[in-house]
Structure formats: C-alpha cells, structure tokens
Amino acid sequence: MFSSSVNVKSYPFNKADIGLISNDAFARGSFPIIYILYNTETMMAYVGESTNAISRMSSHLTHPEKQQLKWVYIISDESFNKSAALDIESNLIQYMTAAGDFKLLNGNGGVSSHNYYQKSEYFKVFKEVWSKLTFENIRMKDLLELENSDIFKYSPYKSLSPDQYDSILEVFKNYSSGTVKKIFVNGSAGTGKTILAIYLIKLLTTLGQYELHDLDIEDETLLLELNTFKQKHPNKLRIGLVVPMTSLRSTLQQVFKSLHGLSSSMVIGPTDVVKKEYDFLIVDEAHRLTRRKSIMGYGVFDNVNKKLGLYHTEKIDGKDVQSAEKNGTQLDWIIKSSKYQLFFYDSEQSIKPADVRKEHFDALKNKADSTQIQLVSQMRSKGDNDYMSFVDNLLNGKLDKNSPHFSNPNYELAIFKDIAYMMDRLQEKEYEFGLCRSMSGYSWPWVSKNNKSKPDAIIDGVKLFWNRESIDWINSTTEVTEMGCIHTVQGYDLNYAAIIFGEEIIYDKQSGKIRVIKSKYHDSKGKQAIENEDELLKYIINIYKTMMYRGIRGTFIYACDKNLQEYFERYIPLDKKDNQLRTLPFAEVKPYVNAVPLVDIYAAAGEFSELQISGENFDWVELPENISTKEGYFVCQIIGESMNKKIQNGSWCLFKENPIGSRQGKIVLAKHYDIQDSDFGAGYTVKSYHSEKNITEDNWSHKTIVLKPLSYDSSFEDIILRGDEINRLKIVGEFITVLDL
C-alpha cells in the first residue's frame, strides 16, 4: 500500500512561479498533500495541508505575512488520505517547532488528535519525510533529540486528546456566558494540565492577532465557540501564565521566547501579577501557590498584600500582630489582579505547609461565579491510569494483602535491592532514551551546596549529590547520581525516573502503615510549624507520589528502610537481575551437585514423589554461592502475606524434601486436600508447625497439629487438624532459608 519513496520537493513561492507546483502529479490531481512555506532569511515558516494545492498557495500569496515566505515544499504520495495528511501536518508542526530553527506562523486551533487506519505506518512515512527535508545552513535534528526537548514537551501545537478538546470547548463556553469568572481545571499528574494551559494562551493570543477565517480551523463546533467568545471579548487581551515554581517558570519562559506570537514576559511569578492589570490569568500548578506561613521573604509578601488591600493585623497585648488567617494569599492576589482566572489544580501535589490549603480552593470553587472541569485521560505515563491508581494505593496503604505485583506491558516498574545496579540500569536508559534522572525526598542535608566535592549521601558505597542547579536542573545534567528534589522535578516529564525513598520515610510492620521520621526530614520550611505527624506524612507522601508520576516509560525504586523495601516488594516486581534464578540447560545439570529442582507448588497436582522430581519434568536452578547443594533440596516461590514475618511475598525459598525427625516450631511445606489457604489455594500451605501429643507408656499419637501463620496481618488464622484430618497430612518439605538473590 505504501510507496517506497514519498515525494518531497521544493518550489519557488511567488505569483510568477506558482504554476510549477502542478509538476507534482498529486498536487495537480487534487490528492491530499502537505506543504511547508518557508524563508531561510527571516527563519519564518508555515505548515499546511490541502486537496487543492494551487488554489491554497494563491490564497496564501495574498496574506501579508505568508507572502513574505520564499519557498514551498510539496510533500505527496499516492497513499495519502485526508487523515494521514492531517497527521503528518500535525507532526511537522510539532517537530519543526521543537527544532527551533523556524518560528511558525501557524495558529493552534486546528490541531487535534484522532486515530485512523494504519496511523502507526504513517508515522514511518513522516520519518521518511523528515529525513528528506533540507534547509540552507540548518542541521536537521534527530526526532528523539527533539522529543526530549522542552519546546516539544510544552508545545502549544500538541495534538489534543478528546478529553482536552472537550475542556477547551467548556472553557470558551463558560467565559462567554457572562456569569463565570473563575474556572478550576482539576486533574491528577500527567493529565495534560500544563499543555492545556499553554495551548489556551497561544489560542487566546492568536484570537487577538488574527481574524477567525485566518486561523485555518475546520472544526465547526470550536469555531462557533471562538466566534461567540470573540464577540464577547473583541479587544486584544492582556494575558499572563502564572507559574509558582521558579525552575518550571524559567523553563517555560525559554519555550515562550521561541514561539511566534508569544513572549517570555507572558510567563510570570505570583508576585508579578500586581505589576499591571490582566484580563486573563492562567495559573499552572495552582496547588503550589503559597500563603503567609513557613515561607522565605515575608517582607515581599506583606508588601504585595498592602498594595492589594489584603494586609491585616490584630491587637495582641497592645501590639499590632500579623493575622495569618486574614492576610491575603497568592491565590487572592491573582483574583484581585485579573478579570478572569483559570486554575489548573491537583490537591494531591501540595507538598508543604506554605501551600494554600485545599479548604481555601474549595471555598472558591463553590462560589456562584466559579465552575469546574475535570481532566481524566493520562497523557504522560505509558502505564496509563492503572499505574497512577497503583501508586496512590501503594503509598496510602490501600492495596489488598493479596494484590498481585503491578504489571503493564507498556510500563517498566521495578524495585532494586542494589542501588549501584539501579544506577547502572538508569545509565543504560539514559544512553538509550535520554532524560533519565534520579531523585529523592529531603533525607539528607545539602552539604554539597557549599562543598561541591562532598557527597550529600553515600548508600552502599554509591556517592549521591543533590542537584547542582536549581533552575532547569532536568536539562543541566546527564549524571544519574545527581539527585533532583521535588522543587526541581515537579511539572517535568522524564523518560525514566529512579526514586530513592530516603531515611525519613519508613514502614511500621506493627501498624502496617508508612510513617515518617521528622528529625530525618531536612526541608526546614517543609516541616516548620507542623506539629501533627499525619500532616507531615501527607506532604511527604505527596512528594514521593509526584516523583513516581514523572516517568513516561518507567520508574525504578530503591528504599533505604528495609521494612519499606519489603513492603514495596509485595507489590512491585524486583528488577530481573535482583530476582534472577539461573536455570541450567538439562544437558548441563548434575542433579544435587550443581543444581536443584524448581517446583511450582501452585501448579502441582500430586505427591512430589509422583512428579519424578529427579527428571526433566522440572527446571533445575543454581543456588547462590554461599549455599551448598544437597540431595533432596528444591526451590519454590512463595506468594502471599501469611508468613511475612519470615518470608516476604514473592520470595524464592529453599526447602528439603520429605524431612525426618521433629518438626516442632519449624516452617514446613504441607499438603492436605482439606486445607483451604487464601495464599496457596487448595492442597498446599507453608506454615509454622506445632503439635500436641497424646503420650502413653507404650505409644504416642498426635492430638492436634496446628499450622500457624507468621504474619503482621492478624486476619490470617491457624489451620487446626484433629483425628482423621491428621492422617491425611503430608509434610512435603522443611524450610531451609530465603534465597538472597
């Protein structure tokens, strides 16, 4: 179906030579084609698609800006249909914007995402097109390099998901209603809030610069909403994008500087909103707006409140004292400084006591001039919403004790016992994909700030340093042992994120809950004025949860606290190296000399002797170097929480077959057809063995046998056998040890 070679040819773009385009048979025959108008002197360009190329070019030559462009690339192929042409056009706009060589004259109102037949094949066609494009004195950048760039990630030309598109319609409909002043767009991490904010600013700016018919918008529903909005707001709008975090704000300022029609001055901090009056203020990461508590720069904060009439004191013992609850917050500043506000908000990403409290946002959401929009589609993580829910449940202790390991074929989640190996794996990903970084909570003081050669933490010989740059740290290094903190990673996308759960966060086995150690949390402002440990726990959980949401392709985990590591291992698969049993080809096997059998007790259907354990019916595995191989040894994996005081969920364990002698107090693998064990199902169980005997002068017999769980979860009950039940019990194996792999 697809041609082996797409036509990509450049022609002069002027009235005299416009007819040369008809040399392209597909352009001449009214097939869908894609085109790029460009000028390598002014470095301006425009990308479009059409089924009537010559007529469209003639129309562009009457446009005051486009007629300044000197050349046109015509891209054509017999396989192109309308959907493919729109898709290739959209990709060209996104990647050319990211390349940064040209500033595009395109508006963004016509960019949307939709699936169509063989879309993935047409992306291969786009790659071929990209490889054939050449411009004078311009190096065409690699697509992966562009995908990792800030301009690509924060491009206003991103194709919108249906979820985002519906939100755009809702925004314009509400702002045209005459009754709505405040819109709150709620969405968890990765739902595309920042992209939507930038998209809206570009669209609002373009509406003030051009007439609607110049915007190449074919969607009639969107055109109708924009037309109504433009009638309501006919004048050029004063617009600002408020970004509370310094690092992300700096990054977006550089992005806006590279985009036609936008400027870096449009990206401002909360204290900048009082410098002029705005029609619209769009606030990204609104959950990071602050109040007058545990902050730096009280004087600046108070001056803004005074300017806006939001400064309040009260008399205490004859002295004027700040009224913390009555003073204005950065949220109040934004409302005071603009006619309309749009807040992108997620209460679960509030990470310190200085952040404006959720109750304040909730009160505003309930006002008559406010409305809410919900984003639900996951736009960042290839693990989709399944991964996002898993992380939330994991860190908030909501997973069932029998929940399986997280598994998603599109997302790589792994926990590591060896931090050095985790860093090696992260480095491999950095070489392959780029944008792979490590990060942690505030577990260690920032000693390297004053002594760059001194590590901030050393874990098992691995020297770790806090981020050496505070602004745009993500792009400042490729060193995997340089850790980011929440302030340098929040709002950014990574291909892989390695999260180090530090010494301030632990798992309490007795309560079965995650806890924090305040003395080991080194963000002084992050714990200042917090007396309730639960409040600090909420902030620290939000920090680690936000970090775990950074990875597009995968997340690696290491925990300093052994109990937390074990808790995570219940639900997160060990990295393959950390969970690896080496299976020998049977031709190399010397039974019980260099290998022992690997037995799946969950699939076993008969007595072990009936399974001919010495033959080829089993895989044979090597034991670790510190364990001698002996006759009768076998390995099996234990799944479940009923023995988690001794055997963690998913552990590989060594057993000795058909043990003799006393079993009292020992852990055994038992077989009994009447046993119903929630961890093992019917037939088998691993428990601690205890018996009570009837003893006479001549003989003895079992009175009861009790198979006891050894678990921090008290819901597991003893298995008690009496009478004939005892006769049907078989002890298949005696537990030797958990294999440290």
Secondary structure topology:
Layout: E1 7-12, H1 25-28, E2 33-39, E3 44-50, H2 53-60, E4 71-76, H3 82-99, E5 103-104, H4 119-132, H5 143-147, H6 150-153, H7 162-175, E6 182-186, H8 193-209, H9 220-232, E7 239-242, H10 246-257, E8 267-268, E9 278-283, H11 298-308, E10 313-316, E11 319-322, H12 330-336, E12 338-345, H13 358-365, E13 370-374, H14 384-395, E14 412-415, H15 419-433, E15 436-440, E16 457-459, E17 462-466, E18 482-484, H16 486-489, E19 494-501, E20 505-508, E21 513-516, H17 524-527, H18 533-548, E22 551-559, H19 562-571, E23 583-584, E24 596-598, E25 619-621, E26 633-638, E27 651-657, E28 667-677, E29 681-695, E30 700-708, E31 719-722, H20 724-727, E32 730-738
Parallel strand pairs: 3-5, 6-12, 6-13, 7-8, 7-9, 9-12, 14-22, 15-18, 15-19, 17-18, 19-22
Antiparallel strand pairs: 1-4, 2-3, 2-4, 10-11, 16-17, 20-21, 23-25, 24-25, 26-27, 27-32, 28-29, 28-32, 29-30, 30-31
Structural account:
With 741 residues, the chain is of the alpha/beta class. Helices cover 27% and strands 24% of the residues. It is built from 20 helices and 32 strands. A 7-stranded mixed beta sheet has the order 14-22-19-15-18-17-16, with helices on both faces. α3 packs across α4 and α7 runs parallel beside α9. The longest helix has 18 residues, at 82-99. The chain is globular, with a radius of gyration of 32 Å.
